[in-house]
Amino acid sequence: AQKLMLSDARRKEKESELQARYGELEQLQREIWGPTGKAAQRNEQLTKDIIARIREVTMRIALAEGYTFVLDAADGNLIYGDPSLDLTDRIIGEMNQAAGSTTPK
Asked: Are 31 and 37 in contact (CB under 8 A)?
């Protein structure tokens, strides 16, 4: 019976060690492949200058050839937009005006 209890204790010890190692593996995977991991950081380092250059060339061509908008075909994000078409200030003005007219008495 004592031999059986020892092997049981040894089995539990090994299970505990295995769980700890599995936790270490998961942590290492996150450190390397996670959204802020080493691979993502390295990718950003390598592509940052290229993306900046692409945006610079895109803006130059858009201005020279009179484009109003240029969209990124990969994700649909706006790469260039004619600043005269920016509605931000008008929207803020109207929102502020509406907020002023609905202030509690």
From this structure: yes
